Amino acid sequence: MTHSSTAKAAQTVAALWLALASSAAIAQTGAMPHPVTVQPLSPPIVIAHRGASGLRPEHTIASYTLAIEQGADFIEPDLVLTKDDVFVARHENDIIGTTDVAKHPEFAARKTTKLIDGESHTGWFTEDFTLAELKTLRAVERLPKLRPDNTKYDGQFEVPTLAEVIALAKQHSVGGRVVGIYPETKHPSYFASIGHPMEARLVAQLKAAGWDKPSDPVFIQSFEVDNLKRIHAMTGLRLIQLMDANGGPADHAAPSYAAMVTPEGLKAVAKYAYGIGPGLAMIENGDAPPTTLVADAHTAGLRLHPWTFRAENIFLPPSLQNGTDPAAHGRIEDAMRRYLALGIDGFFTDFPGIGVKVRNALKEK
Ligand code: G3P
Ligand code: CA
To answer: Mind listing the pLDDT tens digit for each residue in 261-303?
Structure first.
């Protein structure tokens, strides 16, 4: 066989395989896999923040599924632990704002006040519920005033486990498509302090899913530092150091996030992390001129995945708002384009459908 006929035969086999895999995907999900128009998972990547959380209650299978259908590269579960040490997807261990727990009289006595990362919280906490108990609750929209359309889904969806999120990503990783996961350890020092350390459990669960190498479609992120360093010693998966414009890590392993973005601070982060996840304001604060963070991080060998693009006016700088209603949608596409032009390597968004459209237009230019 000549080189070109071998290549043609390989293409035919690949096309056949893709067609079969696509048929299998449609049979499993009832939906067409999103057409792959760009190289899967090549930067800039689109990370569905808590799923398509602008359009469905966050951290639900419905929210993640919509994000995948809209073409997101990664779905983001924030992770906390149950009493029986199962990872579930919630933004915080206090579930008062994102579930109907307050309406369950059988759990009324579990309402309590706890000190978490130096702040007092009154509510119901995942570590006080078994998975079976948590599964009797239903998700509700966190931002009902800003996202009233999402409240029609209140009471419909369970709190998903990490295992279910992994299964969903794998189910949709067919036909040439790869859907990755981007888990965040929430309050790891607090969970360790109450006898539920996260690191080894998370690494083991991801390894059991077949993920432990830098080339695997997983990023592990945290606002804390030492848990990432421990995870770095346990796995080859890529890690992302989250940071915010103000404050510092809850484990006090660095004096502040401001210190972390100095050239020396970034060099230290690059020893254990693949990249950083800064708040958008650390790159460009509203309509002010951009900072040097993109160039500084790249110089240190770090990628940047900033958070979080949201469509509502209240989250956009004045120049990109439409009208005065805080819930009305402004020019989120322009916000994304601005940051992409600055050289970011990916981004978190509550509206992954918009993110994919903007990103693909840029890549196809
Ligand atoms: O993980 C990136 C971004 O999600 C960080 O903020 O508070 O939404 O988890 P948060
Ligand atoms: Ca997060």
So the answer is: 999 999 999 999 999 999 999 999 988 999 999 999 999 999 9
pTM for the model stands at: 0.90
Return the best residue to mutate from 53, 78, 186 for the ligand 1 pocket (most ligand atoms within 8 A of CB).
Answer: 78
Spell out the domain ranges in the chain.
Answer: 4-92+145-151+158-364
Kindly list the protein residues whose Cβ atom lies closer than 6 A to any atom of ligand 1: 49, 78, 91, 184, 221, 242, 277, 307-308, 348
- The rounded distance, in Å, linking the Cα atoms of 172 and 103 is 35
Report long-range pairs for 2-8 (Cβ below 8 Å, ≥24 apart): none
CATH of the domain spanning 4-92+145-151+158-364: 3.20.20.190
- Identify whether the C-beta of residue 47 lies closer than 8 Å to the C-beta of residue 72: yes
Query: Using an 8 Å Cβ cutoff, are 277 and 307 in contact?
Result: yes
Return the bridge partners of 328, or none.
Answer: none
CA within 13 Å, CB half, 18: 13
What's residue 160's pLDDT? 98
pLDDT in tens, 295-340: 999 999 999 999 999 999 999 999 999 999 999 999 999 999 999 9
